[in-house]
Amino acid sequence: MRRVLTAAGAAAALAGAALVPAGAAAAPSRCGDPVQRPWCRTDLTPDRRTTLLLARMTEDEKIGLLSSDDPLGGPLGGFMETAHADTNAGVPRLGVPPLYMTDGPAGVRQGRATALPAPIALAAGFDPALARRYGGTVGWEARHRGNDLVFGPTVDVLRTPRNGRTFEGFGEDPHLSAGLGASWIRGAQEQGVMASVKHLAVYAQETDRLSLSMRVDARTLREIYLVPFEAAVTQGRTATVMCGFGRLNGRWACEDGSVLNRILRGEWGFTGFVPSDHTAVHDAVAAANGGLDMELPIGMKYNAFLLKRAVRDGTVAQATVDGHVRNILRTMFAFGVFDRPAYANDLTGIDRSASEATARQVAEGGMTLLRNEGGILPLAAPASIAVIGRAAEQAQSGFGSANVVPFTAVSARDALARRAGAGTRITYRDGGNADDAVAAARGAEVAIVFATDAQGEFFDKSCLTLNCGDPLRGDQDGLISRVAAANPNTVVVLQTGGPVLTPWAGRVKGIVEAWYPGQQGGDALARVLYGDADPGGRLPVTFPAAEGDAPAAGNPAQYPGVNKTTTFSEGVLVGYRHYDRKGLTPAFPFGHGLSYTTFGYGGLKVSSTAVQVTVTNTGARTGTAVPQLYLGLPSPRAGVVQPPRQLKGYAKVTLAPGQSTRVTFPLTSRSFAYWDTASDAWRVAPGCHRVMVGTSSRRIVQAGTLGTCR
Ligand code: BGC
Questions:
Q1: Does ligand 1 lie within 6 Å of residue 198's CB atom?
Q2: What is the structure's pLDDT at 14?
Q3: What percentage of the chain has pLDDT greater than the value 70?
Q4: pLDDT over threshold 50, residue 538
Q5: From CA 368, how far away is CA 613, in angstroms rounded?
């Protein structure tokens, strides 16, 4: 990538070498004179520098580092879209620079920025290389807004599609979320900013989020919810990990030593620092002993009064406080914060064309063609198109900390008109007057209806219909049905942050899920509808056929909880694992998404270290295939329920007509392992391991076995 600042990866940075952006070397260090301040010597390791600095700090200076403290970056600033989300002032006396932090996972939420497609669209791309570019774009823009740290990516595995933050994560599969999250982090950190993967450990709903008590068994924790965090640390080398809201098995997330001390640091070897989500800290002593390094947005608990008292009382050891300071300083040294000038806030004035290109490519790469009857798509130069629905003029987005105010936006209506050219008559109706919209549809060769949902932080959706909870949106399901009745060539473009019910699906010819497509979404959509680009997306979430089919639906003890307590009694049966095990047929399964060409699969070869398959483009156009590897693991004993299929590999290949390629899905012993609660370890059960290659979790095209099968 042309904007990578340094060849040294964040891995090297955290392993000890300083990560100093190229071009910064000649500029003055903020640390000061290395003779008087030996911790400013860049030839020493971050650990050594930290030791030297720590020895010179007063207790107040140490405690000051343990929270955000800038009034504009604090509780008020965090909600102002023009300010940093948080700021730590550093220690000017000793050359410790301030630390500026911003949201978030879909782009920078601080003034205007490039609005990338929502992370769920990135997930639909099934493309770690694109995730790296996405993270790189967010990192680059965060840096050019003067930040050292960006709060993203969000890798919380989706438990219920009613979750208001569905759009901001990577969907319902841990393996997919893990690979994308780690790549996102690498991309962001290559730009010289720290990432903050969030929200450890389990964060599954907005309802009662600040006080929710979650009961999750150890196996489910390990096999589902922790997987992306583990990858963020071991593969992504994330600088920071944000702990979340709520209580897991009795412990507040930011005070949970069993996760933060034992698993994160002890098992995964994390050496960065742990900031809290805003207002997630409840008790200074519990947080200090439980592994929290930095309280955000201000030191309501991590302040001089409470922490000094705790040390005096002996409830928190001085070494524990020092350890938190050490984690923060070591990470700042490792990322070169001391050794470069502050990043300037100059994003508005500089060339953002690379960001725009990434935004468009992610949108195209994630556009998911759910249905295409009679080859309605790609459009074959229709004489007239009726474009219906407000989202054609303004792309939908989610709200909350993953919202971005775009620099500019390309509307689908304009982009379609440009692409269609003078030979096509385009009429537009916003859909507010259904009769009028239906009349426009009747008079056109093709009707394209845009439909959206409303989603964002703070609230869960109360149902999964398009109109749910938002009367202003009008009756979109009714409008689609009426347009479909009036025009046999109706295509629906969904701009939703996650699954919605599609009761009209059988009555329309085409359905494209465009997600929240970001500021370049209009162009991407026009290119996909006209076949300039193959729809690259596959579903990272199952679309249920009925409200009650969704995971954790219809059981209040599971969701939204009773007396602010939810029990994850579905265990590992999350997402498609739930539908598969229950034998429920979804409207559109996980992994589904059509191409404009067709593919053949053959030559399955199975071993314990890799599965191989040959993919051939059997159609007449160049197109993209996303073969997916699922394993069905044997159960070690009665009571250990195994999902029929678990995603363990995927690939994205673009092939010309007639072209073939051999795809390899690498496997490790972990791919075959379950979490054994008796021994607190990963174990491989003996027996028959079923190997399936599919074009979705429900369309298996090659199957084999490994192990002892009858
Ligand atoms: C969100 C975090 C976000 C923080 C700062 C919280 O409400 O849960 O994801 O990073 O606010 O804006």
A1: yes
A2: 42
A3: 94
A4: yes
A5: 23
Question: Has residue 455 been placed in a domain?
Answer: yes
441 and 368 share one domain: yes
β-pair partners for 647 = 630
Kindly state the average pLDDT of the residues 629-655. 97
129 and 164 both lie in a single domain: yes
Residue 306: φ, ψ to 5°: -70, -40
Could you tell me if 98 and 143 lie in one domain?
A: yes
Residue 75 has pLDDT above 80, yes or no: no
Q: Tens digits of per-residue pLDDT, 230-252?
A: 999 999 999 999 999 999 999 99
pLDDT of residue 336: 96
Structural domain of residue 670, as residue ranges?
596-707
The answer, yes or no, to whether any atom of ligand 1 lies below 6 A from the CB of 206, is no
User: CATH number, domain at 698?
Assistant: 2.60.40.10
Measure 242 CA to ligand 1 centroid, in angstroms: 9
Q: What does the H/E/C string look like for 42-106?
A: CCCCHHHHHHHHHCCCCHHHHHHHCECCCHHHCCCHHHCCCCCCEEECCEHHHCECCEEEEECEC
Residues 477, 502 within the same domain: yes
Structure tokens at 443: 């008079």
pLDDT-derived band at 28, boundaries 50, 70, 90 = low
Active-site residue, selected from the candidate residues 69, 148, 256, 277? 277
Mark whether 613 and 495 lie in a shared domain: no
Residue 638 token pair: 């009665």
Q: Same domain for 618 and 683?
A: yes
- The answer, yes or no, to whether residue 26 has pLDDT greater than 70, is no
Strands (E), 167-254: 194-200, 213-215, 240-243, 247-248, 251-252
* Residue 588 resides in a domain: no
Q: Are 393 and 515 contained in the same domain?
A: yes
Pocket flag, ligand 1, residue 244 (CB < 6 Å): no
Two tokens at 340? 């470069």
The rounded Å distance from CA 667 to ligand 1 centre is 35
CA distance 237 to 186: 7
Is residue 313 annotated as part of the catalytic site, yes or no? Answer: no
Does 547 fall in a domain? no
CATH number for the domain including 388? Answer: 3.40.50.1700
Residue 177 lies in a domain: yes
**Per-residue confidence at 70, pLDDT binned at 50, 70, 90?**
low
Domain end (from 348, 368, 391): 348
- How many Cα neighbours within 13 Å face the side chain of 204? 31
Tens-digit pLDDT profile for residues 499-530? 999 999 999 999 999 999 999 999 999 999 99
Q: Which residues contact 436 (CB under 8 A, 6 or more apart)?
A: 429
Q: Are residue 320 and residue 397 in the same domain, yes or no? A: no
Q: Look at residue 69 in the predicted model and tell me its pLDDT.
A: 79
Q: Which of 176, 203, 141, 191 is nearest to 366 (CA)?
A: 176
| pLDDT for res 349 | 86
